[in-house]
């Protein structure tokens, strides 16, 4: 595939000037590089011009919950902020929130009509409207948990009352499949959006989880570089589609617009990932607890830096989430320690354990939170959602103060 800088070099409409300042070394230059990059990134959380405004927006056809006939699982209701938090089999969970109140429930209707699944996290679904937050889940390595995180963090955020859109930007379409979207139902996809043949709104489908929708993808997306590579706005296709979606919903005056967009990136630093980074407020980086966890991270951070310089100055690193932690494997602890040492507070306290229920759930087309709410993987994703929400609050307060 191509070098990400190929797509970054042309600044396009957003930032006409392309002079990437000197870039950090490509090799992981321990603390100094990572720390400075992250410190810098953390400060730039201000809303960008292109960033959708909060407000009253109309839900895309599928965004709504209550009157969504296809919505099967209602992870409804909700109470205030930080979702539940409980310690699973992951290591240190310092400020994980309070234990979940397991008294709530989720209605499943689709394939199990009437079934009620206990669900802990609940908070007011309709707090005052606020700005949409766009988070790209990126790591050019495959198999590190990007898609699993998009699906399950999305579900956990929806459970916490957020209105979430997952955008599948991987030609493999695993997020679409994992959320139960049959290939034959993917009439319009993110490919159509990026080539300018469909609006994002037209691709959005409801999922079995209330308040969670998806813009699906198919293998067509693999050819996107050939299609839009030569175009000047090639890096901004997704950003512009999101801006149009937000403008439309605002215009329609809906009060249940999305509050989070999670973009599931492909395992490459290609034009698709650059589109996600150019559109996002921040990036979530899943890192698998394995020996080579940090390998490739400097390249990823370098790309983030290039995107900040040339395409999206406000891009921040939201956090790094350690995935597939295995408590029986000493190496996992070593990796956790190393990553925390290099990346400091950017690493979420929540660590996602390796959990067989997490890997089984996609074959049923369900998030693990619906497949088995009580398993360690589900509990971990609920804690992660609580942390994400908390970081959002902290960012907002920092900006306000
Ligand atoms: N916490 C976990 N426990 C067990 N298996 C997991 C976990 N997270 C991801 N997996 C499995 O690992 C594989 C790769 O995960 P995936 O999310 O598809 O990675 P990526 O999107 O980065 O390629 C999948 O088979 C997935 O089911
Ligand atoms: Mg994936």
Q: What's a concise summary of this model?
A:
With 401 residues, the chain is α/β, with parallel strands linked by helices.
Structure description:
With 401 residues, the chain is of the alpha/beta class. It has a single domain, classed as Rossmann fold (3-Layer(aba) Sandwich), CATH 3.40.50. The chain contains 14 helices and 10 strands. The strands form 2 sheets. An 8-stranded mixed sheet has the order 5-6-4-7-3-8-9-10, with helices on both faces. Helix 3 (146-159) crosses helix 14 and helix 8 runs parallel beside helix 9. The chain is globular. The model is unreliable at 10-128 (pLDDT under 50). The structure holds adenosine-5'-diphosphate and magnesium ion. Magnesium ion binds at residues 146-147, 170, 174.
What coarse outline follows from CA principal-axis ratios? Answer: globular
* Strand proportion: 5-15%
- Strand arrangement in the largest pleated sheet: 5-6-4-7-3-8-9-10
Class of secondary structure makeup: alpha/beta
Annotated CATH homologous superfamily: P-loop containing nucleotide triphosphate hydrolases
Helix content: 25-40%
CATH topology: Rossmann fold
Which regions have little confidence, pLDDT < 50, spanning 5+ residues?
A: 10-128
Please give a handful of descriptors for the protein shown.
two-stranded antiparallel sheet, eight-stranded mixed sheet, globular, Rossmann fold, binds adenosine-5'-diphosphate, alpha/beta, binds magnesium ion, 401 residues
Secondary structure: elements and pairs:
Layout: H1 4-8, H2 30-43, E1 105-108, E2 115-118, E3 133-137, H3 146-159, E4 164-168, H4 174-178, H5 190-194, H6 200-203, E5 205-206, E6 212-215, H7 224-228, H8 237-252, E7 260-264, H9 271-279, E8 282-288, H10 297-310, E9 316-325, H11 330-343, E10 347-353, H12 356-360, H13 368-371, H14 376-400
Parallel strand pairs: 3-7, 3-8, 4-6, 4-7, 8-9, 9-10
Antiparallel strand pairs: 1-2, 5-6
Helix pairs in contact: 3-14, 8-9
The protein binds adenosine-5'-diphosphate and magnesium ion.
């Amino acid at each position: 595939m191509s070098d990400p800088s190929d797509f970054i070099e042309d600044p396009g409409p957003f930032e006409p000037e392309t002079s990437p300042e000197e870039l950090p070394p490509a090799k992981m230059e321990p603390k100094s590089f990572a720390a400075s990059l992250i410190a810098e990134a953390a400060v730039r959380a201000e809303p960008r011009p292109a960033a959708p405004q909060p407000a009253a927006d109309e839900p895309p056809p599928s965004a709504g919950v209550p009157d969504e006939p296809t919505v099967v699982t209602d992870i409804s209701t909700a109470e205030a902020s930080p979702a539940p938090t409980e310690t699973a089999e992951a290591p240190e969970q310092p400020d994980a929130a309070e234990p979940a109140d397991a008294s709530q429930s989720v209605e499943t209707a689709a394939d199990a009509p009437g079934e009620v699944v206990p669900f802990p996290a609940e908070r007011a679904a309709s707090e005052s409207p606020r700005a949409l937050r766009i988070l790209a889940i990126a790591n050019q390595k495959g198999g590190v948990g990007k898609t699993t995180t998009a699906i399950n963090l999305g579900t956990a955020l929806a459970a916490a009352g957020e209105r979430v859109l997952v955008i599948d930007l991987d030609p493999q379409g695993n997020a679409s499949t994992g959320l139960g979207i049959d290939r034959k139902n993917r009439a319009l996809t993110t490919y159509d959006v990026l080539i300018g043949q469909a609006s994002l709104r037209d691709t959005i489908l409801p999922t079995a989880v209330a308040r969670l929708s998806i813009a699906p993808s198919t293998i067509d997306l693999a050819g996107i570089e050939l299609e839009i590579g030569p175009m000047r706005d090639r890096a901004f296709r997704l950003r512009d589609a999101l801006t149009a979606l937000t403008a439309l919903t605002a215009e329609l005056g809906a009060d249940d617009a999305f509050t989070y967009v999670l973009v599931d990136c492909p395992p490459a630093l290609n034009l698709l990932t650059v589109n996600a980074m150019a559109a996002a407020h921040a990036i979530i980086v899943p890192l698998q607890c394995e020996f080579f966890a940090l390998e490739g991270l400097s390249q990823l951070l370098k790309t983030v830096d290039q995107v900040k310089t040339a395409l999206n100055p406000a891009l921040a690193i939201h956090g790094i989430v350690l995935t597939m932690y295995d408590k029986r494997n000493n190496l996992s602890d070593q990796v956790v320690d190393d990553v925390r040492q290099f990346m400091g507070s950017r690493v979420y306290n929540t660590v996602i354990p390796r959990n067989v229920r997490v890997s089984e759930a996609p074959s049923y087309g369900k998030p693990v939170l619906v497949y088995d709410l009580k398993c360690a993987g589900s509990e971990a994703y609920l804690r992660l959602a609580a942390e994400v929400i908390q970081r959002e609050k902290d960012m907002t307060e920092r900006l306000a103060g």
